[in-house]
Amino acid sequence: MSDKTDISRRTFLRRASAAVAAIPVVSMAGMSAAKASPMAEDGHAHNYVADAANADHPDYSEGERCDNCAFWDGNGGCHHADFQGVNVSANGWCDAWVSG
């Protein structure tokens, strides 16, 4: 076999692998837009409060805060699809809280 054939095959396999790997990412992007919940005027959703001590929601349990939620990114942001591009407080809470 010539080197040119091997390079083309390798290039094809690399590109095909990248395309297959991108399918779930593209699929999830569409799903997050479809599941977005109604936002408050300030961009927050899920009964968000900036101070968990003020949470008056039946799902709230003492000690739950944004900074110990699985969606917390550690840099002052939330990875939840409904909070993309919205500032949240480390001391806050919402009803999408998940043990992290």
TrEMBL record:
Annotated function: Specific class of high-redox-potential 4Fe-4S ferredoxins. Functions in anaerobic electron transport in most purple and in some other photosynthetic bacteria and in at least one genus (Paracoccus) of halophilic, denitrifying bacteria.
Pfam family name, one: HIPIP
InterPro entries referenced in this protein's UniProt entry, alphabetically: High_potential_FeS_prot (IPR000170), HIPIP_sf (IPR036369), TAT_signal (IPR006311), TAT_signal_bac_arc (IPR019546)
Signal sequence region: 1-36
PROSITE patterns listed in its UniProt record: HIPIP, TAT
Molecular-function annotations in GO: 4 iron, 4 sulfur cluster binding; electron transfer activity; kinase activity; metal ion binding
GO biological process: aerobic electron transport chain
Species name: Thioalkalivibrio halophilus
Domain of life: Bacteria
High potential iron-sulfur proteins family profile domain location: 30-100
Descriptive protein name: Histidine kinase
Subunit structure: Homodimer.
Keyword vocabulary terms for this entry: 4Fe-4S, Electron transport, Iron, Iron-sulfur, Kinase, Metal-binding, Signal, Transferase, Transport
